[in-house]
Amino acid sequence: MKNKLIFFYLLSFVEGGMMLTTELASTRKISVFxxxxxxxxxxxxxxxxxxxxxxxxxxxxxIEKKDTTDANYHQKKLSLMFLILSFSLLLWKYNGDIxxxxxxxxxxxxxxxxxxxxxxxxxxxxxxxxITTLLFFLSQKVNSNQPVYGKILALSTFGSVLFAVxxxxxxxxxxxxxxxxFILSILALxxxxxxxxxxxxxxxxxxxxxxxxEKKIRGKVLYQNDGAFSSVMVIDDNYTRYLMVNYIIQSY
Length: 252
Hints:
252 residues
């Protein structure tokens, strides 16, 4: 019983780190196409919080509807949430195509960022919120005599700090944001199998999706000037010409 409680504590530590890394990566992904203004930050934060809130509520409602003493049932749901998380993170490789399509369709900044952030963040954050709620419930089931919520929140926060430092200082600059998301996706898939033996067919589908290479945005560089404080580029693809400052699209 004690080992199982330690396992849930460890999951909360890893899940908290994965969540903040995902949020940090999303801001960098979106800023490449839409900049990093206060509007963009506000939209990203609102969708992040909304996804978490929906995940908390949904998992709590799921626990109430299925009031069972069978811990394996809820552990199976925990495994399913990690599987959903893994799948949604793998879909990030298509974000470039989506963002460029929104730009070429001349969507307004706010509407384009809202849709792009929804596609990127809502499903992962819903899964993170549901995972946290299920960890609360399962941990309390194992140790009903003492409160566990503070310990889980503390470990989750420590995990966020550690993962954020590693991501910003090591993974993002040397491994790349997309490859970091691949690592998180594989980690989520591994945790899904560790939590509960899920259908191997879903795992195989996930691995096949992982093998599909990310589509690179290719274009002809017409002009590039790397100054002391900024980099300016003009790029042509098949249909559009972009002006980029510090690798962020300014106009087209």
